[in-house]
Amino acid sequence: MKTFWVMLCCLLPALGVAQTEFPYVKLLSMSTEQLRAEKFKYDKDRNREVLRKSNGWQVTANVLSALGGTTGDIRPAENDYEVVIQYGEQGIAYVEVTFFKDETYHDLLTFAHDQGEDLLETNSGKLDKIQFQYAGYAFELTRRLQEVKTTTDRTAALTKTFDESYNVYRYVIWTGRPASSDWLTRQAQKQEKRAVKGKKKQDVSSFM
């Protein structure tokens, strides 16, 4: 696992390497055997490979803190992460990496600014998003502020507020192939039904 984490968070490829190399590119070509060796689990319903790493000791400490009426560190551990490899009928549709390490985000941000083409940056309060192209792929890098505030006591005079807010980082590689799964099919069917109901309501309102 240590080797895999190094692969995920290591320094960016040096200038002058092949154009097809970029952060997390190995995830696009890992075999089933390699995925199993790295503890990926296949979700048949959503047609995706998923790997989650979380600090189990920290989760336990948070539960004990809550039961004891004290405030624990409810933020994710710096090295926690989730990797999703989403498939479609024609292969991998996208790779999504969610993480909490500032250094990794800054490495990816540097790659976006130094190597990215057609760079587009947007900001909407708690969300910063960068979209760009590279080596025939589309990329998305976001930073979202997750606000979490806790208090120690309900009595106004004794209340202390602790700000446990943290950043959630997300890096996505889009291949241009559509995603497909049983779950996505069901979601599309539900959305279609909601759209039909909406149209019926609109038709009825026309008589008013």
Using only C-alpha atoms, the radius of gyration works out to: 21 Å
Instruction: Describe the strand arrangement of the main beta sheet, using strand numbers.
Output: 1-2-3-4-10-7-6-5
Name the beta content range: 25-35%
Count of individual beta strands: 10
User: Which structural class fits the helix and strand makeup?
Assistant: alpha+beta
Helical fraction equals 25-40%
Low-confidence regions: 1-19, 63-71
Mean pLDDT: 81
N/C terminus separation = 64 Å
Shape by Cα distribution: globular
Provide a count of the helices. Answer: 5
Structural domain count: 1
Largest sheet: 8 strands, antiparallel
The sequence of SSEs as H and E is HHEEHEEHEEEEEEH
Give a quick summary of the entry:
Helix content is 31%, strand content 32%.
Descriptive account of the structure:
With 208 residues, this protein is an alpha+beta fold. It has one domain (2-177). Helix content is 31%, strand content 32%. The strands form two sheets. The chain has an eight-stranded antiparallel beta sheet, with helices on one face. A hairpin with a 2-residue loop joins strand 3 and strand 4 (91-99). The longest helix is centred in the C-terminal third of the chain and has 24 residues, at 182-205.
List keywords for this structure.
208 residues; alpha+beta; 8-stranded antiparallel β-sheet; two-stranded antiparallel sheet; 5 helices; 10 strands; disordered N terminus
